[in-house]
Each structure stands twice: as C-alpha cells, then as structure tokens.
Protein 1
Amino acid sequence: MALIDVSSIIQLAYFGSFIVLMFYGQRIQISMMLVGVKRNLGKLERLRKAAHDSVLSSALRFKGDQKAVESRIDRLTGSFAIQPVSMDPSGIVGKLEHILDTYDDNLRTEVKAIATSATDAEVNTLSNQMEISIGADQMYRVVRHFYLLARKQGGILALYQLQMAMPQIMEEADAYSSAIDAFAKGNPIGDGIGPLIASKMAEGAQSREIEQDTIMYETGLDGRTLLLVRAKGPGGSVGKPGIAVEKLIEQNSPSLVVTVDAALKFEGEPSGEVAEGVGAAIGGPGVDRYHIEQSASKRHIPMIAIVVKMSNKEAISAMTQQVRLAVDEAIKRVKNTIISASKAGDTVIVAGIGNTMGIP
C-alpha cells in the first residue's frame, strides 16, 4: 500500500512538473538567463568605474580642478565617431581617415585642456587611457540596453543573441581590465612589439620625425640601406605608419617593404610564436594598410609580413615575458627575409607597427 502511494506521488510530481514546464518553462528559462546577464552586467559596471577612476586619478596628477576635470572626462566618455556613408564607396578611405584624424585631434585637444601641464607623451598616454574608458563605457551601455530590452519585452531571441555574445564580450572586458593598470603606469604593452623590434634593429642610429608622431631611423644590413619606421614614444601612440611608408616609397624606391606587428593567436597556439606571410601586417580600420598597399602595388614592390602572436588580453596589457622573448627571434626572421629577398645596394623599408606605450 505504501509502495503504491509513493508511486502515485512520483507520478503526480512528474505530471505536475511537466505542466509547469509546459506553461512556464520559457519564463523560467528567461529568468535564469537574465540572472546570468545581470551578473555580467555588474562586472562591466565595475570595469567601467575602474577605467573612469583611473583616468581621473591620472589627470588629477597635473593639479587641475577636480570638478571641472571630472565633468570633461564624463563628457568625453560618451563621445563617438560616425562612420562615413558607404553607399558610394569611391573615396571612402579618405573620408574615413579624415574622420579618424578629427576624432583623435579632438580627443587630444580635450585631454590637453584637462592636463594643461602635460607633455606630448603624457597627453598621448592619457588619451589612450581615455579610449579604454570610452570602450568600457560602450560595452556596458550595449549590454545594459539589450538586458533591459529583454526584461521589458520578454524577448527571448534578443536574450539568446546576447547570451551567445556574452563570453566574447566578457573576454574583451577582461582584456580592458588588465589594460587599465598598464596604461596608468605607462608600461610597454604587447601591441608594442613592432616598435620595440624596430628600435632594437636601429640601436645607435639617430631618429627623425617624418610624419605626425612617427619617426624613422636609417641604418644598414649587409650592404642594404634599412629605413626603419615606428611611432614616436614613450607616450602611447601608433603614429601614422601608412603615410610614412608611402612617403618613403615615393622618395627612395625600395625593393622590399617589411611590416612587423602583433597578431591575435588562435586558441591552442603559444604566445610569442613568430610567423611570416605576405602583405601588410597592420591592424586598425584599414587606412594605414591602404596607404602601404596602394603605394607598394603601384610600383610592384613585394610586401612581407612578420607577426608575433598573442591573445587580445596580452596585446593591450603589460608585455608578458613570453612576448618579450620573441623579440630576438622576430629580428632574426626580419634580417633573414631582407637578405634573401633583396640584394646589396637595395633600400628596404621595415615598419614596426604598434602602440609605443613605454617604449622611448
């Protein structure tokens, strides 16, 4: 009799749970998903505040009025750049370049107004910190938007999309979190591997500025003339390597262009692995790559790319030992490439692409 009663209770519980799930399963699922997203939203909010506080703390070192500085930083945090219209693609690179230059100039002008006694290098570093704060704020706003939309409308499709994107968003947020301290202290970051390699290859040579925040060294290798290009440090700057290389191609008619940069590694690949390829190794929106490709292809100049692989987190946080150890191997690859792909008497351009934070 007791056995029958237990069996009946189990059956009743089974049917009861089935009915609950049938009518309320989606609501339960949405509630559980919202809880997970809300937890991540809290992490993004803390990241946003940490980035904001880091910029504010760095700016106040230059003894500005705290309320005025904080007000300007809050206003800058919500700034944005509108992409040019692409319905007519002709000339879009020039339009994009103009918008990006205007945005960068405006950001620097605002930072100079915040830190009036800062040097150019310090202004560049503060601008980089400001960009991290802007990026963290945008991530938080986007996730909050979809979270509130899903909670308001019960839109499970929007919530599914957000949940699918959350691992990638949180990985990006983790990278930003690691970058805050490195940029505040002005330490070299993983993305600075290209300029670091160019500097080591140019040891003993004098530099000269050939474009805004972009310098060049002239040295030699086995009878070849090397023109080494990189952004100006030690403030955080990527310079204008595309325009600089384009100018040098027009002035010197090189036989080879070599670009050295950081590259995102695939999962399972070791950090600091050096790889070779063809083309222009340069990230970003594509403006600088366009200048290099356009000028080199017009004159049929081979383009060789050498990259050092790392994760996104390693690229924007303090340079790791694994990445530093790749410098000598990368220099060896660059030199071997130059010797095998050119001859004595040739001129070769080597562009070290990347952010010069902490690299003089």
Protein 2
Amino acid sequence: MNDLDILVEHKPSPAKLDVLGVEGWPLWRREPATFPWRYTQQETCYVLRGRFLVTPEGGVPQEFRRGDLIRFPAGLACTWEVLEAVEKHYRLDQP
C-alpha cells in the first residue's frame, strides 16, 4: 500500500455513515462519460447509485458501485469511466 492507493469499504454500516455525516455532504452526479481527473485534495465519497471504473495512471482499473465508501488520495491522477449514471455524496479534506 502506498500514499496514492484508493481505499474502499463495501457496504459500511448505517451507523458509520451517520457518524461521518454523509447525508450532509454535497451531491455529485454524472451521466456516462470518460474523463481524466487529478485529485488536488483527498476526497471521501459514498456512492448512492451507479457504477464506474477509476484507473490510476500506470495502474489497473478499479470498479465501484452503490454502497461503496471510497477514499481518493490527494495527488492521484486517474481516468474515470462512468458506466451507469452516478450519484454520490462527497467530502474534500484539507491536506
């Protein structure tokens, strides 16, 4: 594991989501598309619906879907491929 690894927890408990305050985080929606992305801040997100692949530069694709709690590290450069329309709550963390 290194500093640019994507961390995922599948189906975290409702209690954990409540403690994190996920319901109060902003919403992000995206229809199917492919685009490059670079995280300048760490992002934590919880996927409400949809399915997508994230491929880190020089890495292997990782698939995410509804019920995943994901941490994308600051500095990660990747390509997003939204396979099914996505809706997620997200929080940007200061480095």
Protein 3
Amino acid sequence: MAKKIYFIDSRVEKFDYRYSLSGKLEKGLERINLTKYFSKDELVPIKMHLGNRGGHHTIRPNFVRLVAEQLKKVGASPFVTDSSRVKPYEYLEVANEMGYNQLSLGCPVIIADGIFGRDSVTVKAGKILKELAIPSAIYDAKSMMVLSHIKGHIDSSLAGAIKNLAMGCVCPQPRNHTWKEGGRGKMHFQMTEIMAWNKELCTYCAICADNCPVEAITVRKDFFEVDEDKCWRCARCVKICPEKALSVPISHDNFLASLAESAKAVLDTFEPGKVLYVNFILDVQPECDCMAVSDNPLIQDQGILIGDDIVAIETATMDLIEKAVPLPQSKADGIKLKKGEDILSALHKKDARIQIKAAEKLGLGESDYYLEKI
C-alpha cells in the first residue's frame, strides 16, 4: 500500500499566516496527529544538523520552534540535538550563533553524545559496519522527530533523512573505541585507511588543517602529516583542497549502502512507528551544512514533506528535486541533465538514490507513496 506523505508547497497563495510555510507546517503537524507517535511526558529528541560557522542555509529557527511547540501541545518534552561534529562545546556555541538555543527554540539544545563526545551505546549493525556507537540521548529515547535540511554531499550526493540518521546518530569516536570499531568514520572510508596525499600537487597552503574538525592534520613548509587516530574520515579536507592534492579512494556504492545499514541500526533502537520525519526542501545547497560556507541554492525552494516512512519521504524528496529546474548563478548553472537525472547526482557524479534503494532493501520502508497537499 502506498505511503501517505504530506506536502507543503513553498508557494504562498494568500497574504495570510495560514497560507505561509509556518502556518501550513503547523497545520500539517496537527493533521498527522502527533499523539500517534509521541506520548505525554515523553522526552523527545528533535534530531537535526546544527550547522557550522560560515554557513547560513540551515533550517530556520522559527520552523524548529514551531515543531517544538507542537510537541509540547501533546504533552511531550522536546529537546533539539545532534551528535558531535566538531568539539561538542564548540558545536553548542556554533548552534547558538546559528540561532539554535533555548530562548529561540523554546526547548533545550544538547549534544547527544555528551559534552566530551563519548557518551554512547554500542549496537549491532549489518555486514558492512558490524557495530556502531549510538549517542546516549538517541539510544535512550523512546521516540524521535527528525528534521532534515535537504542538500548535496560530497560522498552521498543527497544529504537527507537517511544521512541525518546514519551520520548524525552515530558517535564519531565512542568511549573505549576507535573510529574503526564503532565510530562514524567507518562509513566515510570504506576502502582505505586514510586519504591519499599527492605531494607533487600540494602547495602546503594549510586550508585542510584549518578546516579539520578534530585538528588531525599538521601542515608546515614542505611538511604534511595526518594523525590517523584523530581523523574522523569525514573527507572535508578532500572537498576543500584547492589543488586537488587529497583524494578518497572509496567505493561509493559501498558507502551509500553503509548509510542505509547505519540508519537501520539507529531505527532498531526504537519501536516501530515512533519516528517521524520532516524534510525541508528549502535552500538546497550543493554541500553539507557541516561546511564552513553556504553556496547559492541549486534549485528553487520546493517546500516541506512530512511522513513516517523514511524510504517514502526520501523518494518523494528526490522526485521533487528531479523535476526542479537547475538555477542560474549556482553550481547547477550550465549542467545539462539527462532524462531521469537529478541535479544532486549530476553535480556529485554518483547516484543519490542508491542509499534509498538500499534502505528499502533492508526493510526500512517503501518507495511507493502519494502526496497529500496541505
């Protein structure tokens, strides 16, 4: 049976709050009946990406506050969270700069794996990843609201709800483990121990070191070194290297399959029907929100999707992106799409839908859906 996905069009029909994106989001959350997913007095994590310094295309705080208010209306106690992406204390400061704090959102903002980024519970994963460390604030929760800003990504092409769970709900380096044994880096580097460095191309500009979230790279005149124990394998250095002196010899099919496997490991910590997804197809930029910049959106805003099936909502997201016209004055400018191709896959040169198909194969949902417009 086709899954219902609520669709909030970004177009505004009348100069009336009820027809604004906020008004329609409020109506959509009321129509879906949050009491089916969240109970009175339940602590509910609102899982989202908190952004990075230099970026600005994240989910707007007024939308997040609206979601928190709707959860409070059904008696739940929400808190906004993400796992550590930089040092947790610094990440909280970044969140505050992005407008995510208790005053603006009306609920606490915490780091899911603790102020030192080590609080987690190890769970079994699939044949690729074996096991993963889930942040305690996610593992111990009975339900979860997942807010995903849709954008591109160096390795997955699509950064949506699947990646939000797969990467954002895994501790980068859990207590008493290395990244290889349960951390997020297991997904990033499936086929190599460390990024490849081309000495002939390197100019020792140190941009990679300046942008490394864990200070794993040391660059001096004619000297380049990576601390393999510190490195999270996030590949940010590869993306930003102006000389292309760094590369990732990775099997992207394997990486995308591992995202689905990780998402399943996260969802297996919840009872069925206790996770709700909201995909914001707004400000669809070419790179992840963890980058220190935001580029012009690749397509016009499409709107917001709400649903409880991660495969269906991701499929609907990609269908909307595929139909959208690439925008001029963006990285999409001049790219000629083939029939059935989307701008994210064309830009990053890997099929964004592989992770969705892998998730469906693992039984995380169904790609068959229909849209109900709010």
